[in-house]
Structures are given as structure tokens and as C-alpha cells.
Amino acid sequence: MNPWLTGLPLVLLLAVLLTLGAVALLRHNRRTGIKALLGLNAALMAGALALFAVALNAAPATAGAGDGGAAATAVAAATEGSDSSGAALIGAAIAVAGSSIGAAIAVAYTGSAALAAMSERPEIFGRAMVVVGLAEGIAIYGLIISIILIGQA
Questions:
Q1: Confidence of residue 109 (pLDDT cuts 50, 70, 90)
Q2: Final residue of a domain: which of 13, 42, 57?
Q3: Nearest residue to 81 via CA among 64, 52, 62, 60
Q4: Which of 27, 72, 89, 144 has the fewest Cβ atoms within 10 angstroms?
């Protein structure tokens, strides 16, 4: 099995334990806790960027030497367009992630404003929900773009 996959639960457990320690330190000494959380975030971001760089530079799998030339030719033909399809899949992931984060922020603001307005005038429920629905539409647009990109891959 891939060592990345076997080590992932240990890394996640370590990150959770460090986060809990930083939060406990934050309650005890605010300045030191904030520095610890910023350091933890920087370390996690560096690890994510390193993993991203390794994933982008990975070579496609090839057939073993004992399989003969036909298997190597089949693998080469199957992975011929993998560079552009990998970029399309990364683009689809970015489209979904960005639109979902944007929609979450928009729904947070419009939802709280709609609830505040409905508490004063309950008859504007329909109008308020239309505005919240328009904010949720941002995520649907990202999903549509990702489906188009995956179809092109």
C-alpha cells in the first residue's frame, strides 16, 4: 500500500492533537496561543503545498519489465492525454471549492439579514428566501462549470 495513505491517519491525529493543544494554550495565554495556531496553520499549508507539488510532478504508472512491449504500449496510449485531463480535474476542484466557499459566505450574510428582516415583518418571508436562494445559486454555477470541465477531460 502507498505509504502516503498509511501515514495519513497519523498525520491527521497529530494535527488534531496539536490543534487541541494550541486551543488550550490560547485559553491560558492568548498571545502565545495565537502564535501557536499561526505556526500550526503555516505548517499545514506548507505540507499541503508540498503534497500538491508532488501530485503535479508524479509520473504516470508504467508496466513492469516482464510484461513485454505490448503492455507498455497500452499504458503509454492510455496515459497520453493525462496532463491536460489532470489540469481539467484540478480546475474542476477549484471551481467547486471556490463557488462553495463564496456561496457559504453569501448565504451567511443574506440569511442573517433575512432572519433579521423577517423578525420585524413576517410577511416578507418569500422575498427573503428568494435572496437566499440566489446566493445558493453561486454553488450551482461552480458545479455546472466543474461538470463541463470533467466532460472535457
A1: very high
A2: 57
A3: 60
A4: 27
Ramachandran category for residue 102: left, alpha or beta (phi over 0 → left; psi -120 to 50 → alpha): alpha
Could you report the per-residue pLDDT of 45-73, keeping only the tens digit for each? 888 788 778 777 776 655 555 555 555 55
Per-residue DSSP letter, 34: H
CA-closest candidate to residue 52, choices 87, 1, 103? 87
User: 46: which residues sit within 8 A by CB, 6+ positions away?
Assistant: none
pTM: 0.49
Phi-psi region of 119 (alpha: psi -120 to 50; beta: other; left: phi over 0): alpha
Expressed as residue numbers, the domain containing 31 is 1-57
d(C-alpha 83, C-alpha 72), whole Å: 18
Q: Cβ of 92: how many Cβ atoms within 10 Å?
A: 21
The answer as to whether 74 is a domain residue is no
Same domain? 49 vs 107: no
Residue 39's nearest CA partner among 50, 31, 29, 51 is 31
Domain count, the chain: 2
